[in-house]
## 1
Amino acid sequence: MSQKLPNMLENTIQKIRELVDVNSVIGEPIQTPDGVTIIPVSRVSVGFGGGGSDFAAGKTGGDTPFGGGVGGGVKVTPICFLVIKDGTVRMLAVPEPASTTADRIVEMVPDTLEKISAFFDSKNQDK
C-alpha cells in the first residue's frame, strides 16, 4: 500500500489540475461589436480524498492484496462579470440563488408588482 495510494492520489490531483486552470477563475474576455469587453469571474472549489488498506495474503502467497479508492470533484460558480467600456470598469455581480422560501418570495415581489401594475394599466386603458 505504501506506493499504490500515493500514486492514486497523485493521478487524481493531476486530473483536477487538467480540469481547472486560470481560465476557470478569470474567463476569456468577450468582445462585443460596440467595443465593450466582458470578462467572467468564477469561484472554483476543489475537493478530493482517498483511502485504502492492505489485506492479509491468501493461500496463494505473493504480494499482499490492496484495496482502495480515490475520488475528487470540482465546482465552478460564476460570481461576477467585469464590464469594460470606454476605459471604465464595472462589476456586475451574479446573485446567489434563493435558498429558502422566504428568499424566493422576496425575489418574486418586484416582478409580481410589475405584473399587477401592467394589469391595472391595461384595465384603465380599456375604459
## 2
Amino acid sequence: MAKDVIVVVQRDALPKDKESLDILLVSTTGAYPVQTYRDIESVKAVFGPDQPNQNMKVVRKATTLLNQGKTTLAETLVNKFKIVGLETPKPTPAAAGTFVITFPSSVSGINESDNVYVRIGGDDEATVELTAEGEITTGSALAALFTGTSFTKGGKTYSATAADAVVTFTATTNGLADTGIPEKVELFKEEGFQSPLAITPDSIKFTNGVDAKSAADNLVEEIKKFQTDVDNDWYFLLTDRDDEESVTALAKFAEASEPTEAELGAGVEDHRKFYMGQTDDKTFANSTARAAVIYTDHLEEEADASYAGNVAPFYPLSVTWKFKRPQDGNADTSAGIKVITLPQLTEGERDQLLENHVNFLTEEYKRQYVKDGVCLNGEFIDVVLGGDWIAKRMRDLLYDILLTNPSIEYSDAGFGLVATAVLQALAEAVDNNIIARDSESKSGIFTVVIPKYAESTEEQRRNRVMPDITWEAQLAGAIHQVKSKGVLRASL
C-alpha cells in the first residue's frame, strides 16, 4: 500500500578532486609492489640507502618531481605519483626453434629398401623422404633414418638429429619463426602421400624460436606485463633508465600505446601513454610520437623529472612546455633558486638538438628556459596531452550518459543525448585552453555533426549502432594553430 507522506532528502554532490596527471615512475633495482607516494620520506623508506631495493636515482627523481615550487608558474605542485619496482632488465639471447618427435619402441610396416614419405604439420611442402636399409622394427631404427634430413616451414629450415627413438628437428637459424608448426606427423609408403603407415608417434612437440631481445626491450615487456596483470591506471611514464637503448625503446612503447581506429573497432581498449625521458647524447634522434626527451649534461640532476614536475601541475589546463624553468629539485636552494644546469652546447649542437626535436635548457638574453617543448616527432607536448584529455573526457562522459539513463531511444532525440558527451567535452576543452576561442565571439572554435535517424542504415538500426558523430576543433596549441578531428561511435 502506498504511503500518504513521502519525504526525500537530497544532498549536493561532493566536490570533485582536482584532476591531475597520473604519473608512474618505474624503478629497475628489484621487484616491489606499485604504491602511491606523496612525500620523499615514504620513497626513501623503500628505495633509500640500506633498503633491499635501493635506488637513489628514483629518490632523486621523486624529490625533483615534488620540489618545483620556486620556479613553476603553476598554482599547485605535483603531490602524488606511483612507483613500481621491476627486476633489473637483462638481454635475452636468440634461440632456435625445435620440432621433436618421439616414436614408440616398436614399429612395423617398413621393409628393406622402402621409401617412406613423412609429412610435417599437415603441410605438403614440409616433407622429408626416408629410405630403409633394412626392415624397420624399432622406434630407434626409424628415428635414425631421419638423421640429416630437413624441411622448411614458417620461413625457417629445420635439420634433424636422432637419439634413441627421438628425432629432433632444429632450426638452422635462431629466432622466431613466421608461423608455428602444427604438432602432427604422418608417414606414407607412396609419394603423393598415399598408403599411410599405421605408425603414430608417442609425442610431438613444437617449440618456436626466440628472437634476441635487448635489456631495453625486456623492460618494455615487463611494463606491458605490469599493465595487463597489475595496474593500467596511469598515463605519464618516467623510469630510472637513461641509456639510449632504453629511451628509444620506451619512446616506441609510448607511440604504440595509442590504438588505431581499426583496433578500437575490434575491441582494443584505449590506454594510451606518454613518456618523458632524458639523454646526455647530443646526437640522440628518434622520430616517435607520444614521447618527449630533454638533453642534459648531468643525468643525475634528473632533468626529465624536473621538467615534468615543473609543468605537469597545470594539467588539464593546456600550457606550452616551452619557456619553462625546471628547478634542480635535489639542490640546496637556501642560497637561492637553482635551475637545472645549463648544458654546454656549441651552436651546431644546439641546432642538431632542435632538428632532432630534443628539448634542452637554453639561455637567451640572460633568460634561461627550456626549448622547444616538443615530442620527438616535432609535435608540441601540450597538443598531445590536450588531445589525449579530450579522448578520455569524451569517453568518460559518454559512459556516464549510458549508465545513468535507463534507455536511450534510437532516434534523433537519442542521438542528441549521446552528442552531449561530445559537446560537453569540447566545451570543457575550451575552458582548459586545449581548444582555441574565436577572438571576437570568445566561443570555442569547434564544430560537431550530429547524425539523423534517417541517415542510419538498416543494419545499424538492427544492431542499435549510431551513425558516427564527427567533430573538428582548432587546438589552441599555444600560439601554433593545429586542427584536430574526431569520431564518436556508440552502441545504444
## 3
Amino acid sequence: MTDAAVASPNELSVDVQVDSTSPTSRRLKVTVQSAEVDRRLEEAFASIARDAALPGFRRGKVPRAMLERRFGPDVARDTRDRLIGLALSEAIRKAQVRPLGEPELPKGAVPPELERGRDYVFEVDLEVMPDFELPKIEGLKIRKPVGSVPDAAIDAEIERQRRWFGNPERISGPFEAMDRMIGPVKVFREGVAEPFFTADDALATVPTDAEGGRGQFLGVLVDGLAAKLKGRKIGDAVVIETIGPEGHELPEVRGAKLRMEYEIRDAERIHPASNEEVAAALGLPSADDVRPQVKLALEDRMSSEQRGAMREQVAEQLVGATNMALPEKLSTQQATSMVERRRAELLSRGLDPERLETELARFRQESEPRLRDQLKLSLILIRVAEQLGVTVSENEVNARIARLARQRGERPDQLRNELAKANRIGALASDLREQKTLDRIIDKAEVTETSIDEWNADAARRATR
C-alpha cells in the first residue's frame, strides 16, 4: 500500500509502503524524492559556504568545487542522517501506526548513501501496537492480604542491614558463603571460538546454603555457582557453564550453552556491623531504636507488597480476558523494555542493588509463555491508561526518585544522575504509569480481605501447579 506524497508540517514529502511482518511489527519502505534530496544537500553546502575559510580565500569566498572536495562526504553523511530522522517521523504519521519502540534497520542492512539526482530509499522495522478489544475493567473481584510483620522477618532484616552497613575486609581466600569477588570474564557460546562478551570487573558472590548453591552471575542464574566459587582464592581461574535464559535481552543468549571463563582478581568479606553502627548509619539515637525503625520500614514495605499482590490479581485477570496476537518470539527491544520495567518496579520496592540483580536474573529465567504474558499486560495497560486518562508528571517521577533515594541512603540528585546515565528514567515513568493504572482499576474492584497466612498458602499451591 503506497500513499500519495503529501506535504508535512516539516515540509518534507515522503512516500511510504507498509508491510506487516508480524501482528506487532511493520516494515516501512520510505522514499524521499530526488528533488528533496537535492534541496537538502544544496542548503547544507550553502550553509558551509557562508562560513568556510580556507587558506588563500576570504570567509564565504571558497569555490564550491573546493568545498565539495573538502567537505562533500561529511556533508552528505550529516544530511542523510537528518533526512532519515525527518522522513521517519513523516512516514510513521502517514502509515498511521503506533510505535512501541525505536525503528531499526533490517538485520544486516546499512543506510544507503545520499546521491544528487536520485530518490533516497530506505527500510526500517518497527514494533507497533496490535489491534485488540479491551476487557472489562470495572467490578473485578480481588483479595487483599492483611496481617502483621512477624518477628522472624524483623530479625532477618536487621541482619541484612548489618551486612549492608558492614565493614569490608580484603581477603585472598579460601572463599566462604557471601564472600564477594571481582575480576575479568570472557563469555563464549557453544561452537564459537571468539567470546561474544567480555568485562574487566565482573562481580560474583558465593551463594548461601539457603539459596541451594544457586546464584546470579552476569545477570544469569547459575545452578551450582557455590560449588564453583567456594574454597577458591585470588588468582584462580573458574569456568562457569550454564544455559542462557529465554527472557534475556540478547537473542544470541536465549537458550544458548554459555561458557564463562572467570579470573578472580580481588575479593572481600563483609563483617556485619554492630547494632550501634547500624543506628549511626540510619541516623538513629541508639541501638535500641533499630528494631522499631526496621519494623516501621517493614510495615511500609508490607503495605507496598499488599498493594502489589492486588495489582498482580488485576493483571492476571486482564491478561486472561484479552485476546491479542503477539509475535512468536520476543524481540530485543521488547525483552529489554520488559527487563527495564521490572528493574524499575524492583527499585520502587527498595531492593538493594545486589538483591535487585538477583531478582532480575530470576525474571529473565521465566518461561516464554510468562514473558509473553508480561508483554501482553504492558500493551493492555497502555490502552487502559489512555482510556482512563492516566498520566505521569515530571513531579511524580521526581517524587519517586526522592523516595527511592531515601530508601537507599543516597541524595536524590545523585540517584537521578545515575538513572539518567543508564537511560532508565523512562522505564521508571512507565512503571509508575502502569501502577497508577492498576490502582485505578483496583478502585473500581470488589475487594475482600484475607489473612496473610492464607494468602501465602494459596500462593504456594499455585506455584506447584
## 4
Amino acid sequence: MKTTIWHPFPPLFDTNSRVLILGSFPSVKSREQLFFYGHPQNRFWKVMAVVLCSEVPTNIQAKKELLLSHGIALWDSIARCEIEGSSDASIAQVVPNDLRPILEAAEIRKIFCNGKKSWKMYCQYIEPVTGRPALCLPSTSPANAVWSLERLTDVWRESLTPYL
C-alpha cells in the first residue's frame, strides 16, 4: 500500500562541499534512522569507504565526518512522494527537493545521482531549475544485484575522484 511521505531529515553539506550525491528517496530503514543509506545491505558506505581510502563508518556521526571531510554533500532528488515501502519503482506523485540552499552555500563542482530513479527525477524536475546536468552512477542499492561491489567501487571512484 502506497503512503505519501515527506522526506524526514535534512541534507548533509557544509560550505566546503564540492560534490553533491543525490539518492532518490530514503528507504524504510533510512527513514527509521533519520539518515542516508541506513539499510545494512545498501553498499553506499562500503563504496564510499573504498573510494575515500577510509574505514567503513559504523555510526551516523562517523558517516557525516567521512563525507564532509572529503567535500561531499548528500541529499535526495525527492522531497515528497507516494511510495510503497522502499520501492523506487512504486514512487509516484513526486515533489522534488529544492537544491538552492546547497548550491548557494557551497561551490558544488559536480552533481551525481545514485541510480536511475534519482537521475530521472533530477532530469525531470531539478535540472530545468538549476540548469546543471548530473551524472548517473550505478545504484548502490541491494536491488542492483547485477553490479558487484568491486565493479560499483571502480565506477564510483573513477567518477568522483576528479572532483574531490
